[in-house]
Each structure stands twice: as C-alpha cells, then as structure tokens.
Amino acid sequence: MSIFRRALGAALLATGLAAPAMAQNAPSAFPGTRPVTIVVAWAPGGSTDFVGRVLAQAMSATLGGSVVVDNRPGASGTVGHASVARARPDGYTLLLGVNSTYAMSRHLFPQRGYDDDTAFAPIGRVAQSPIFFCTNPQTGVTDLAGLVARAKAQPGRMSYGSSGAGSSAHLATEMFLRDADIRVENVTYRGGAPAVQALITNEVQMAMVDGPTALPLIAANSIRCLAVSTLERNPLAPQIPTFDESGFRGFQATSDFALLAPAGTPAEIIARLEAAMRAAMANPETLERLRNGAIVPTVGTAAEFPAYMRAESQKWADVIRQRNITLE
Q1: For labelling, which of 5, 68, 164, 206 has a CA lying 20 to 30 Å from the CA of 193?
Q2: Distances from the Cα of 182 to the Cαs of 107, 144, 148, 237, 253, in angstroms?
Q3: Cα separation of 266 and 249, whole Å?
Q4: DSSP assignment string, 93-150
Q5: How confident is the model at residue 142 (pLDDT cuts 50, 70, 90)?
Q6: Beta carbons within 8 Å of 138's beta carbon, 6+ residues apart
Q7: Do 121 and 270 meet the contact criterion of CB atoms below 8 Å apart?
Q8: What Cα–Cα distance (Å) separates residue 120 from each residue in 27, 116, 204, 295?
C-alpha cells in the first residue's frame, strides 16, 4: 500500500471517528450522553444546595440526560461563581447563582476575578427563599411596631445575630434597621446555626432566619416570628405578616436563585436549557418539593434577568453604602 493510500485511509478513519464527536458537541445534539453539571457555590445542606439538587433531578428528565450538582463553596459564593466564569461555554457547566453573590458580593469583594455583568449568560430565575425576621419570646414583643418602639426606647441595648458579614441575613437586617431608623447592635457568628442558637438562648434578641430553619422553631415556640421578607405571606406559615403589610412598604429581602451559564454559550443551547428549566419548574412534584422546603418558585426568562440583576445590585449597593458596611 502506498504512502498516499495509507494517509488517505488514516484521514478517512479520523474523519469517521470525528464525525460522531462533532455531532455530539453540536447544539442540536445537546446534551447527548455527556452529563450537565450545576455548580452550587455553597456547602451541601443549605437552601441553595437543596434547590440545586431538586432542579438537577427535574432537569435530568426534561433534558433527557444526566444533570448533577457540584458543590464549590468559599468566599461568599465567589469561588464557585469564578469557576463557572472560567468554564468552557458549551452548556455542560452551569451555575445556580444566588443574589447574595451576583448582586451583593460585587460591592463587598471588588477583586473577585470576574465581572458579574459580562461573565455569565442568563438562563433565568428559578426560585426564592424567604427570610423570617424572628425574636426571642423573652423580649415580649409580638409585632414589628412593638419591636421598633422597644429599640427606640433603648437605643443600642438590643442586638441581632447574623450568619456572617455581607450575608443575606446581615444585609437584610441592616436594610430593616435603616428603614425603621433604629440602632441595634450586630453580633456576627460563623454561620447560620450558631446565630440561631444565640437567638434561642436570648444571647441576641432578633435575627433573620431562612425558612427551612425557622419554621420548625416557630412551630415549637422556640422563637417568635414577626414578619416574612417576601411581598406575599408564605403558604407554610400564613399567620405571619409580611414586612410590607406591617408598615414597611415594598420591603423585600429574599435569597433569589438563578440559573446561569458561562458567557459565550451558544444561543441555541441557552434556549434549550431555558426550556428544560421552565418545564422542570412546571412539574407538580418539583413544585411540591420546593414549597415543602419553604422555597417559592419565581421562574423568569433569560431576557428578563439582566434588568432584574441591575435593580437588585443597585438596591443592595445603596444599603451597603448607607449603612457603611465593609468586610474589614
């Protein structure tokens, strides 16, 4: 066999082997047999991890392929966000972003190594987790008006617990203190669990607590909830009023989850992922699992996300500036 014929045969063999791979990576074949990874930038066990795993299971069915969760915690979520910003934009690495990182951290961690506005291609909002503003029952207050009156009568003598500087609970409380025009001391703990324990023991008198943690403690009368941070009452605790109806018009401070891809991901793949996400979030079993975890579905489109993120970023930038919040 001549050198030319051997070379031609090798070329044809290579072409034959490459064709399936090219087809596999084509947008029309997405996702094929490759698994899609959703990066969760927080440790297992929290609300973001819970939403990510429910979404991954539901999207596995709607995409017709495997969707898995990869936890990459660190630096208030910026480690996981940075890893996706650097990932290949082929649709196989996604991010379940949270507004505490994509809207808040940019104002607290200027050296993140990526730009939230340009590093990601939005797929759409997924859901939100309400925050419950709770007090220790020993305070004797039963509503927000009573708490504000107590704090004004005793400026600086009451304290609140937060799960870390720059966390959603920290910034949500500071926004409330700003709107109420009261002075309450901040006590920062290394995570949500010790902050809640401090509330139960009356080491601090108030704290913003996420739904999955708050609801069992409220039911057991270990803590008392004065308001929920969504604009509508939570169906798992309909007796708890919102901040809005308690006199703080428009007050909203939730953990908002959104599905994002690396910038440059082909539009056809983004559309496929958005359709799969929306179909997954329309599944009654998925909705029931989320709602039982105190998570509220808030499905949005890819086109709507940039305007939402800009507004959310500006809201928290104002709180951080007005309350002089730093991480030093």
Answers
A1: 68
A2: 24, 12, 7, 27, 18
A3: 41
A4: EEEEEEHIIIIIGGGT-S--SS-HHHHEEEEEEEEEE-EEEEE-GGG---SHHHHHHH
A5: very high
A6: 202
A7: yes
A8: 18, 7, 39, 24
* Structural tokens at position 276: 């799969």
Residue at token pair 């403690």: 217
What is the rounded distance in angstroms from the CA atom of residue 69 to the CA atom of residue 57?
9
Identify the helix (H) or strand (E) that includes residue 60. Answer: helix 47-63
Each residue of 223-255: pLDDT tens digit?
A: 999 999 999 999 999 999 999 999 999 999 999
DSSP reduced 3-state for 203: coil
Structure tokens given for 13: 């063999």
Amino acid at 160: Y
Task: Give which of 220, 194, 225 is closest to 208, Cα–Cα.
Answer: 225
Chain-centroid distance, C-alpha 140: 33
Q: How far is CA 276 from CA 17, 87, 135, 272, 299, in A?
A: 30, 21, 41, 6, 12
Which of 98, 81, 34 shows the shortest CA–CA distance to 60?
34
**Spatial distance between the Cα atoms of 279 and 94, rounded to a whole number of angstroms:** 17
Nearest residue to 52 via CA among 36, 66, 63, 39: 39
Q: Residue 169: which of 141, 147, 144, 194 has the closest Cα?
A: 194
